[in-house]
Amino acid sequence: MADNNYILETRNLVKEFKGFVAVDDVSIKVQRGHIHALIGPNGAGKTTFFNLLTKFLIPTRGQILFNGHDITSEQPAQTARRGIVRSFQISATFPHLSVLENVRIGLQRAMGNSFHFWKSERSLDVLNGRAMELLDTVGLTEFANYVTVELPYGRKRALEIATTLATEPQLMLLDEPTQGMGHEDVDRVTDLIKKVSANRTILMVEHNMNVVSKIADTISVLQRGQVIAEGPYAQVSTNPQVLEAYMGSTEAELQGAHGH
Q: Helix (H, G, I), strand (E, B), or coil: what is residue 89?
């Protein structure tokens, strides 16, 4: 029987591509209400693992349980309806619409009536209040009427988080949320993830050790498709196998002493 403390559980998950094992017997439990980070060198299987969770890929073997239900053979749309939503898969949805309009579309998707969206401008006004609340949550109130394409990079990520929140996910999957950002944006997005994690569960793939050290409750380290370590940052960051996996990384580097 599944443990109710865990919103998501994978059991001996395997994904093979023509003889190459990308995910190799991965059993991970994600605790409800936690921020759980997946880290590991390039090619460790993190993205493949995410693709298995969102049903973009079908596992070769193993099980995925969400809220105690076996969702291994479900279609992507079924899994999304259960509340597993991956951000940046819906990234900055419509670049030539305003920031506010993008969040409204996210809200409509959540209401399942997106096909009405040309019907009347007035029906959208109902959503404006909620959309503005979400923009306030992610610090984008003053950008509401900007055309999305004009947003600075870090702010686009904040918008993507807002459009993901619009779907009221139970489990938010964040794929490299700080990738390609300068310090200031990294800090802002890190704070934002921490903020929106209240009453939610977040599973994130992240390269930036500094980010993970600040906000992750639990870290699973993948190497060559296998979990080689798991636990809080203090424990994982001193694990010799983890240090070695980040080839030649010094301990200081892994612990974010340089603030990368």
A: coil
Domains parsed from the chain with CATH numbers: 1-83+169-260 (3.40.50.300), 90-168 (no CATH)
Residues of 92-122 as b/e, b for ≥16 C-beta within 10 angstroms?
A: bbeeebbbbbbbbbbbbbbeeeeeeeeeeee
Q: Is residue 149 pLDDT above 80, yes or no?
A: yes
pTM (predicted TM-score)? 0.86
* Dist CA 152 CA 158 (whole Å): 10
Pairing of strands 171-175, 201-205: parallel
Residue 174 pairs in a beta bridge with 87, 204
Question: Above 70 in pLDDT, residue 217?
Answer: yes
Which of 218-232 are b and which e, b meaning 16 or more Cβ less than 10 Å from the residue's Cβ?
bbbbbbebebbbbee
pLDDT beyond 60 at 113 = no
Q: What is the DSSP letter of 37?
A: E
CA distance 22 to 87: 22
Q: For residue 146, give both structure tokens.
A: 């900007």
Give the three-class secondary structure for 237. coil
Tokens of 59: 């596992």
Is pLDDT above 60 for 247? Answer: no
Indicate the angle between helix axes 153-166 and 99-111, nearest 10 degrees: 20
Residue 90 sits at the vertex; the CA angle it makes with 217 and 225, to the nearest 5 degrees, is 50
